[in-house]
Design brief:
Largest sheet: 3 strands, antiparallel
Distance between the termini: 18 Å
Strand content: 35-45%
Number of domains: 1
Strand order of the largest sheet: 2-1-6
Shape: globular
Number of strands: 6
Helix content: 10-25%
């Protein structure tokens, strides 16, 4: 599992099915697994895709690292 920060949320990239430019031309729609209602973010699609693909500009968190840190193992 890989979590990335988009706006103020951490998103599991394994659950993203579709990313597309918003119909109004501003922002991005993100469709999560099992939902036909998009999550609308006020970011350009390029920034959203960079976050999902692992651009160094964005914070990327590995769930295993969180577990190890919270349990004093790291």
């Amino acid at each position: 599992m890989k979590l990335v920060k988009i706006e103020d949320c951490y998103v599991n990239t394994d659950h993203i099915d579709l990313v597309r430019k918003a119909e109004d031309g501003f922002g991005t729609n993100i469709f999560m697994s099992g939902s036909n209602i998009p999550w609308e973010v006020d970011l350009p699609i390029k920034k959203v895709l960079n976050a999902i693909c692992g651009s160094e500009e964005y914070v990327s968190i590995n769930a295993k690292d969180i577990y190890l840190k919270n349990n004093g193992l790291k």
